[in-house]
Fold:
Amino acid sequence: MTPGIEPPGAIDVRVLGPVRWYVSGRPLAVGGPLTRVMLAVLVVNRRNALSPTRLANTIWDGDPPPSFRANLHNRIAELRAALQSAEVAATTTLRTDSSGNYCLDIRDEDCDLGRFERARTAAMAAFDIGDHERAAEYFLQAIAEWSGAALDGLPTSTFVEAFCAHMDEERQRTLEARVDLEIAAGRAAEVIGELRALTARHPLRETLWAQLITALYTVGRHGDALEACRALRGQLREQGMVPSDRLARLEQRILRHEPLPNPGRIRLARNVDTDGSTLLETLGHILLYVEDGRRFEVTRAGMTIGRSADNDIRLQDAKTSRHHAKVVVDGEVVRIEDRDSANGVYVNDRRVRGRASLVPGDRIRIGSLTLEVRRPLA
Structure:
């Protein structure tokens, strides 16, 4: 265990993979899919009280049964019984307050999600003071918390979709940040195999390709670096896409045999909440920042993006369609839809097929312009 990050306590809840619950290493019965969704919601909102109505709307995707209060009560009782069987104080760990709200009162160290977030925060702190070796260790520890796809096996719902999309992106950014550090530390040769596997798994994610190309060029394999550039171009061409300006500049540097800038800049979005807000509370309140300095608040009515003057966000860019994209708010989830644009919509370098969920820290590319998703400062 890396210094500074506490190991799991007696309770260990897992949501970064199949939903599981352990006490002192012994698995507890969690119940069926809906009970697992409920446990996941409680973990995401740990130490925050959730009303029965809000919990039910999340579990049943906005359409709870008339008897949802009794249903929730029974599911909570099942989880408490599992805790009691392991000699854990069930009513204080999974408590109900005087208003009938439910709360899972566990430490961050008692769930893989909390440990992942703490390790990433520690990595960023180490990076900020120049301790890149320690930062790399923390990133590795964060990645090790994953045991599969987030909420693996749970039925699709608004909550499950939003959480999985958000955490998948956070996991990917953590991997990329660690790779940046490895390359910057002179260990480019050690990550080439890993990057080849990652680009095969995510063939349209330009950040990974840029890292692979950089690693190959750094160790003197100039021909292989250019071949990787051609491979990426071919992958994108099959989808009707072209490389970003960043990739084009990287290729030109390699063709001219120029030195590359230090890649150790950390690609993680610094959007860690410090005000106690929960995931469900933050998804529906975001701002879009256009790289030209304009700022737009996403409202419940949503907004349109395109070159035409009748759009809420007008982008005067030749590669942007007249009616290019639409941002919609669906309950607690903010999504962006491609309106059959000519050049596509990209979120974090991945082309949107139909629609994609948005969370703070995401970068949207439309035509030649980039929009960043942020939370309000206050």
